[in-house]
UniProtKB/TrEMBL annotation:
The keyword Endoplasmic reticulum does not apply. It comes from Stichopus japonicus. The lineage of its organism: Eukaryota, Metazoa, Echinodermata, Eleutherozoa, Echinozoa. GO terms for molecular function: protein O-acetylglucosaminyltransferase activity. It is a single-pass membrane protein. Residues 291-363 form the Glycosyltransferase 61 catalytic domain. This is Glycosyltransferase 61 catalytic domain-containing protein. The chain crosses the membrane at residues 9-31. It is found in: Membrane. Its main location: membrane.
């Protein structure tokens, strides 16, 4: 049976020089997880003010009623007002409709935080919506009109340029949201609007896999005249949090770690990786004679100083060919193609270590950590490959020997520099043998240690390898 619920938004608005202070409520009804509820009854989908026509807006449904993080809503004719950077739904003359709720819907109001546009816990970027009676439009303020027909998905990319963040925070949630609410299966069904001023650069191709048209940024809308209105015909707003497994330790939350109450499983990952491979035109099966491992190489920072030696020893110990991949030299397609059929993946802690989610079952991952970095406090990739059902063996190695590390105190802060700090603070940081669990972002002591180069202690790596189930299975195979 559908149950009733009320949303009440206390709202204060000053918009287009008219201010109101009102409470609105509407009664959605539940359909499973979804509730459907029109802000108002649809009468005609064109509204007119002194000759200009406005599309009548509708809120079709929203999920969840208790929090905006993870809520997803669908709108018809959602408009972006260039003059003030707000989104709006337009409704008609209240007197004409005689709709009961309209008694309270006098004038304009801004409904705040309907949806969080980012999926990152603590970075909840609120989606606010002005609900505007066309009676209150000041003639001439909104006169140029771009109508974009078709389906759209609006969210905010959280950490632009970082592959791991793109996949965990944006693309898995986009994929899952659109699969669930837009019937996405094999082909994109909507055009993505990623609501950042930054360009996605190298990652654009990745987002493109999920987008019907070229993904739209906030910048793409800034060249219109101020008095413009851009309206989207059918638009899903927000990201499901169903696939998240990590929280990044944003201020006000615990230090970074596995997300409490995560519902992500291997089946979310498998559907996503399957979709990506198919869209990239990669073969669905691996060649039979594939027996190789991968070593991920970072070319600029956080280097492995003896990578050749490490690769050689890995190859000898595990009895397979080791291939080298890097974000600098290889395309995403090459990386995903190679990882999808690999048996082993070894790399330094960093964004590339998101790619193990593409590994086949029964594979093995070794993540390396620089000096003073406790692997237990940096677990986005461990958590991913250990999601329920993943069937990937994971081990962490950390450098315990201070003489095997090379620090970069004179670099910029984001590359581990500390020379901008007082002598005493520099000394305190240099003295630390382990950095404590931390809140996000760019703490000098965290950056200093994360951006070290490392000479890997080979015997300790071999010791880890020979104690894995993976090794034992292979060794059994090769010695019989
Ligand atoms: C998705 O598919 C279902 C069942 O085929 C259909 O009822 C629904 O309208 C579709 N939704 C969208 C957004 O296309
Ligand atoms: C996981 O599912 C439960 C039950 O549906 C829900 O309450 C919870 O919010 C979900 N967790 C996340 C992170 O979405
Ligand atoms: C640390 O590394 C140095 C240089 O590589 C080496 O001489 C030393 O024996 C190592 N110390 C330990 C405790 O392994
Ligand atoms: C750093 O360690 C050295 C040697 O143990 C000690 O003399 C010094 O006081 C320490 N500095 C700070 C700021 O803790």
């Amino acid at each position: 049976m559908p149950s009733k619920a009320h949303w009440k938004f206390a709202v204060k608005v000053f918009f287009l020089s008219i201010g109101f202070n009102v409470i609105i409520s509407f009664e959605p009804w539940y359909v499973g997880l979804l509730f459907k509820g029109s802000v108002r009854q649809k009468t005609d989908d064109r509204l007119s003010v002194s000759g200009t026509e406005y599309p009548e807006g509708e809120l079709l449904w929203c999920t969840l009623s208790d929090r905006s993080w993870g809520r997803v809503c669908k709108f018809r004719n959602l408009c972006y007002m260039h003059i003030n950077g707000e989104f709006a739904l337009f409704h008609g003359n209240t007197a004409k409709t005689g709709h009961e709720q309209d008694a309270q819907l006098l004038g304009n109001r801004l409904i705040k935080d309907i949806v969080s546009l980012t999926s990152a816990l603590g970075a909840e970027f609120p989606f606010n919506l002005a609900h505007i009676s066309i009676d209150n439009i000041v003639p001439g303020k909104l006169k140029y009109f771009n109508y974009r027909s078709g389906s759209y998905h609006l969210f905010r990319a959280f950490n632009v340029g970082n592959t791991a963040h793109a996949i965990h925070d944006d693309l898995l949630p986009v994929f899952y949201t659109l699969s669930r609410y837009d019937n996405l299966t094999e082909e994109p069904t909507s055009t993505l609007i990623y609501w950042r001023e930054l360009s996605l650069n190298k990652l654009m191709g990745f987002y493109q896999l999920f987008s019907q048209g070229e993904p739209i940024s906030q910048n793409d809308l800034t060249f219109e005249p101020e008095e413009s209105l851009t309206c989207f015909q059918d638009i899903i707003v927000g990201l499901s949090t169903e696939t998240l497994w990590y929280q990044w330790g944003l201020p006000g939350f615990e230090p970074e770690g596995a997300l409490k109450g995560s519902n992500a499983t291997s089946s979310h990952i498998a559907k996503f990786t399957g979709y990506v491979r198919k869209r990239m035109g990669l073969p669905l099966r691996c060649p039979i004679a594939n027996d190789y491992g991968i070593i991920f190489i970072r070319k600029k920072t956080r280097l492995i100083l003896n990578e050749e030696k490490l690769s050689e020893v890995l190859s000898k110990t595990l009895q397979l060919e080791m291939r080298e991949l890097s974000l600098e030299k290889n395309t995403f397609k090459e990386i995903i193609k190679t990882v999808s059929c690999a048996k082993v993946l070894v790399g330094m802690h960093g964004a590339m270590m998101i790619f193990p989610i593409f590994l086949p079952p029964s594979s093995f991952v070794l993540e390396l950590h620089p000096y003073a970095i406790n692997p237990r406090n940096f677990t986005p990739y461990k958590t991913a490959v250990e999601l329920s059902g993943m069937d990937i063996e994971y081990r962490a190695w950390r450098n315990m020997n201070r003489s095997n590390t090379v620090t970069h105190p004179t670099e910029a802060l984001h590359r581990g520099g500390i020379s901008h700090l007082s002598k005493e603070e520099q000394e305190r940081i240099t003295n630390l043998t382990e950095i404590r669990p931390h809140q996000c972002c760019q703490h000098p002591e965290v950056q200093f240690r994360l951006y070290q180069d490392t000479l890997i202690d080979i015997p300790s790596v071999v010791n880890i390898l020979t104690n894995t189930q993976f090794y034992k299975n292979r060794n059994g195979k090769f010695s019989t």
